[in-house]
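Posting this for the archive.
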Amino acid sequence: MLWIKALHIVFLVTWFAGLFYLPRLFVYHADARDEASHARFLVMERKLFAIMTIGAALTAIFGVWLLIDYAWLAYQHTGWLITKLVLVVLLVAYHVSCAYVIRAFREERNRHSHVYYRWYNEVPTFLLIAIVLLAVVKPF
């Protein structure tokens, strides 16, 4: 079971690397003024999203494995596990929202400024902190 937990954490780290960097690309993309920069950011965003989606999928696979093998039976009546799972659903929704942002840039429909994306960039940080604290401390 420790191997599964280790793999879950490894792929979580890869997923979050993408979740931290992709919105930063959105900041720069929103501020780009020339066509060459726009094209370059489109390629970078698409490739990074593909890689981070693999990390997200593997995180989910190993997380569900842990949940089925022992976590649900051990912690189903605790508030922290339910709260953590709700936050994970929000994280997945954020991940999906990144795909919509990429599409908006690709279709030249983006209407947000670089300042908006600077704030958008902070969402995964707060979710990561909350999820890790819940998983490690198990406060309730």
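Residues 2-137 form one domain. The radius of gyration is 17 Å.
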